[in-house]
Amino acid sequence: MLKGKVHKYGADVNTDVIIPARYLNIYDAVELAKHCMEDIDEDFLKRVAPGDIMMATTNFGCGSSREHAPMAIKAAGISCVIAKSFARIFFRNSINIGLPLLECEGAVDNTETGDIMEVDLSSGEIKNVTKGLTFTASPYPDFMTEIISSGGLIEYTKKRLTSERV
Amino acid sequence: MGKTLAEKILSARSGNNARAGDIVIAQVDLVFVQDTTGPLTVRQFQKSGLKKLAKPERTAVFIDHAVPSPTHTLSNDHLVLRRFAGETGAMLSDVGEGVCHQLVAESLARPGDVIVASDSHTVTAGGLGAFATGMGSSDVAVAMGLGKTWFRVPESIRITVAGKFQKGVSAKDLILHLIGRLGADGATYKALEFGGDSIKEISMSQRFTIANMAVEAGAKAGVFPADELTRDYLSEQGRGTDYQPVFPDADAVYEQTMQIDLNNLEPTVAKPHTVDNVALARELKGTKIQQVFIGTCTNGRLDDLEIAAEILKGKKRYSGTRLIVAPASRQVLMASLEKGYLQTLIAAGATVLPPGCGPCLGLHQGALGDEEACLSTSNRNFKGRMGNPRGFVYLGSPATAAATALAGEITDPREVM
């Protein structure tokens, strides 16, 4: 069960603002996270606490294919991102590095920054504790759940390569 | 029931009867990385336990985003990529050769190919009938090692073009107009498929411009049929044998069909800070511009420099407006020298950069100052994109860029043609 306070953004939050290109040659996720969202929300890093939940309306993560974007969000302490819709490369990248994403229009429409939320990834149940409302996100296809539970695509591939050898 | 271009290509490469919504594992014909996302791809490749490339001769490493390197840390990233190419046998395209997507179009992409790369503008190769799409570093690392990857077969939006481009109007205006209609997420998870009676009015270079920006509407791919123009282009590039016709079936099923009449298009500009925030160039008259940039995988080809040179011939840029030009590849650089386009642009006051991404993504060269505005022929105008969140980026065609460089404010190119 994930629990944290919500940081809510609008539409079309792109990967250039999640992590600007000038930081793409930082490979330590914790160092990368120090610049997460700085071009659109300078105080984000001061407000965020481990386990917090990022939320946005539509097309979250559009733009560049940089995997650094979900890496930075995850290392900043965000436990999952809930949006009405995600851009497709960002969606795959997040699954691949083990940042859970949930698509849920109702939760986004009825939640504000600062609300406390609980998320059960296995059932897709999203609870706005502050407002006492419950929502359900669309489930992942099975093989994607397998990638997530392996800890990302690289671990999943490693596991597959090892089992193929056996 | 017939198939769309995306369904046809993914069926051929997966060995399945691939239909929109299916998840398939497809063979990958070409995989590449560049210098901002490549080093992470190399790390992920090594971490995953993969040792060898599935197809070294169809794997490429491009050093194009920050060239020549502006800092020692980026130089070290370039070293990582050179070493990886040396150890694995991947092709290496080093400083000065040009932007990955342009080089892929010139030398590597083939009709019917499935292409993945760690860059969102990989969609460019859709201009010659490939199913090409951007992915992140982990996905690309695994595709390099296994020679295959998974896809959800996209629904397709059919874009039917009729009519003829009018004077001063080009592919950039078409795609900005289309993104304005679709919205920045109007094609998310989908493919844009272009066709119609006037598809032959759109040259190969212009097809690359259009396919390049499909991702700015969220699309997974932007695909053109591989027709006689494609065949001729490949012959000119000395690889006529790479041609095979690729067309959708006449009875293919589309999620949606949209019409574009080329006759009605006007010079179009995307305003800060989203690509779907479009207006006509003439409506933005009076918007002061401190920097004009002509180049990139979107509009850094020979015909782009030609139209800019035509407009600027014998004239000077406005004194308060810097003009930066970066040919998209060495081939474009050489040809534009031979044709005299670069000489014309330099005489008009242009600063010419080496082939590469130039100021597009704010890594070096041409970063904006606070409150400065740039009219760029690139594909993204996001906040901070050109290195400064206090800068403003407008996107337009090479003709609009050249006219704007003359006037120092956004100008409809038809005024000066």
End-to-end C-alpha gap of chain A: 35 Å
The helix tally of chain A amounts to 8
Broad shape of chain A = globular
Looking at this structure, what is the CATH superfamily of the largest domain in chain B? Aconitase, domain 3
Number of domains of chain B: 2
Helix percent of chain B reads 25-40%
Our Rg estimate of chain B from Cα atoms comes to 20 Å
| Count of individual beta strands of chain B | 18
Strands across the major sheet of chain B, in which order?
4-3-2-5-6
* Main pleated-sheet profile of chain B: 5 strands, parallel
* Major β-sheet profile of chain A: 7 strands, mixed
List its salient traits.
A: 166 residues; 8 helices; 19% strand; B: 417 residues; alpha/beta; Aconitase, domain 3; 2 domains; 5-stranded parallel beta sheet; 13 helices; 30% helix
Description of the molecule:
With 166 residues, chain A is of the alpha/beta class. Helices cover 35% and strands 19% of the residues of chain A. Chain A contains eight helices and seven strands. Chain A has helices at residues 15-18, 29-33, 44-47, 68-75, 88-97, 105-109, 142-150, 153-165; strands at 2-8, 53-56, 80-83, 101-103, 116-120, 125-128, 133-136. Chain A has a seven-stranded mixed sheet with strand order 4-3-2-1-5-6-7. In chain A, strand 3, helix 5 and strand 4 form a beta-alpha-beta unit. In chain A, helix 7 (142-150) packs across helix 8. Chain A is globular. Chain A starts with a strand and ends with a helix. Chain B is an alpha/beta fold. Chain B folds into two domains: 5-262, Aconitase, domain 3; 268-415, Aconitase, domain 3. Helices cover 30% and strands 18% of the residues of chain B. Chain B contains 13 helices and 18 strands. In chain B, strand 3 (59-62), helix 3 (72-88) and strand 4 (91-93) form a beta-alpha-beta unit. The longest helix of chain B is centred in the N-terminal third of the chain and has 17 residues, at 72-88. The termini of chain B are far apart. The mean pLDDT of chain B is 97.
